[in-house]
Design a protein that fits this description.
Elements (H helix, E strand, L loop, with lengths): L5 E6 L5 E7 L2 H15 L2 E6 L4 E7 H16 L1
Antiparallel strand pairs: 1-2, 1-3, 3-4
Helix pairs in contact: 1-2
Length: about 80
């Protein structure tokens, strides 16, 4: 039986991806990557460890920008 593992990777200043941690489920990896991305305003991605396939990518700057734009629309 193959254990499915999903890992999160962070994009460094040199544009290289660095693996940080792995999870048993894609959902937990995605939530962790999204949380870290919003906290650091950095880019994170979720990678399926078995075939090294990128499952999701999140950019903290884009996430917070979208949030700010929504707030400004609501205030108008």
């Amino acid at each position: 039986m193959i254990n499915t593992v999903f890992c999160i990777e962070r994009r460094d200043d040199d544009s290289r991806w660095r693996r940080e941690m792995c999870f048993k489920t894609e959902f937990r990896a995605f939530v962790n990557a999204r949380t870290k991305s919003m906290a650091t305003l950095g880019s994170y991605r979720v990678v399926h460890d078995f075939d090294n396939e990128v499952v999701a990518e999140v950019d903290g700057r884009e996430l917070t920008k979208s949030k700010r734009e929504r707030r400004s629309r609501q205030q108008q």
